[in-house]
Amino acid sequence: MDLRVQSDFLTPNPYSRPGTRLSCVKGIVIHWVANPKSTAKNNRDFFERRKLGKSGYGSAHYIVCLDGTVVQCLPEAEMAYHVGSSLPYKPGTTQIYTPEAWARLNTNRSGQKPYPNNCTIGIECTHIDWDGRMTKETWRATVKLAAQLLKRYGLTANDLWLHKEVVGWKDCHRWFVNNPAEWARFKAEVGTAMKPTRAEVMLIMSKYFKDIPKEMEWAAPHADSLYEKGVLKGDGQGNLKPADPLTRAEAAVLIDRAIEYVMKELSGK
Predict the structure, then answer these.
(1) Which of 14, 116, 169, 198 has the most crowded CB, counting CB atoms within 10 A?
(2) Could you report the per-residue pLDDT of 58-112, keeping only the tens digit for each?
């Protein structure tokens, strides 16, 4: 599944696009739009209208639509107002933000209160009802988008957050807050989507094979070269299956063969 992302950046303004640069990226935060059956464009335009100063602060980097299309509202390098808080994370305490957010989403070295807006990217999900139930298209696109972002910034599925997991008091994303097993399933699917395919490993190591599709044929000479060196063997029937996921076991074998070849070359044997 290819992501269909349209950039429709908000107008710079103090309420939804302040233009402040992120200090780093420590996490990806998943939200719901709290507006059943609305589109990504509807919600993007709501963020845009906030520039008038009549509906508070708020925005997100991406919004995933009911049909799986994605609208990008802000450059990833800029801060969105999507996970700020001024309320205690739970009754009976004065602490703003959860202990987990203090520990993992804090860019303040002095131990002061964290400000997760400055180190996270926000994804808003559209949904079909007040339970927060998403279409299959929204779910799949959000999995794909989250996986791409996590890989881009050197993060893992453990760096996915719900809005509630950061601020403590807000039931956002409501579907996941009320259905923890669904949140676990979503994170597991993101983790699977992050696994490199054989094609990606071949790209990284400059190699390839025979059942390579047209769009990957540029890598075929490298695969053939590694085959001749005994590093890359495919399935034994002349097929690389370049789009299949690469397991840790398969990666270990490839790396071991490559090291063995290099050591033989160095020793002259």
Answers:
(1) 116
(2) 999 999 999 999 999 999 999 999 999 999 999 999 999 999 999 999 998 776 8
Task: Give the pairing type, strands 70-72 and 62-64.
Answer: antiparallel
Confidence of residue 52 (pLDDT cuts 50, 70, 90): very high
Helices and strands (DSSP H and E) totals, the chain: 9, 6
Q: In the chain, what are the domains?
A: 5-194 (3.40.80.10), 198-267 (no CATH)
CA neighbours closer than 13 Å in the CB half-sphere of residue 259:
6
pLDDT of residue 204: 47
Return the exposure string of 231-259: e unless at least 16 CB atoms fall within 10 Å of the residue's CB, then b. Answer: bbebeeeeebebeeebeeeeeeebeebbe
Mean pLDDT, residues 230-238: 68
Q: What is the distance between the alpha carbons of residues 138 and 125, in angstroms, rounded to a whole number?
A: 7
Q: From the CA atom positions of the chain, what is the Rg in Å?
A: 22
Please give the model's pTM, rounded to 2 decimal places: 0.76
Phi, psi for residue 260 in degrees, rounded to 5? -60, -40
Q: Say how far apart CA 210 and CA 242 lie, in whole Å.
A: 9
